[in-house]
Amino acid sequence: MFDEEETKKPADYVIGQNLEDMSVEEIAETIEALQAEISRLEAARKAKSDHLSAAEALFAKPG
Questions:
Q1: What residues contact residue 30 under an 8 Å CB cut-off, 6+ apart?
Q2: Residue 29 neighbours by CB under 8 Å, 6+ apart
Q3: CB burial of residue 22 (10 Å; 0-12, 13-18, 19+)
Q4: What pLDDT does residue 55 have?
Q5: How many whole angstroms separate alpha carbon 30 and alpha carbon 23?
Q6: pTM score > 0.90 for this model?
Q7: By CB count within 10 A, which of 2, 29, 50, 59 is most buried?
Q8: Distance from C-alpha of 17 to C-alpha of 7, rounded to nearest angstrom
Q9: Given its phi and psi angles, is residue 34 left (phi above 0), alpha (psi -120 to 50 degrees) or beta?
């Protein structure tokens, strides 16, 4: 009925946490997750920056 091994959900990573207790596999999974999060953050930053630039252009005083 039950699998002998539970499906592991990667734990949330805390910046600066001790890495000694993490396995090589856990470190690799954490790196992958953090790279995905960096990509998501960069996309959000670009979207907000583009939105801000458009607003500034719209409300810019004619020169």
A1: 10, 13, 22
A2: 10
A3: middle
A4: 86
A5: 10
A6: no
A7: 29
A8: 23
A9: alpha
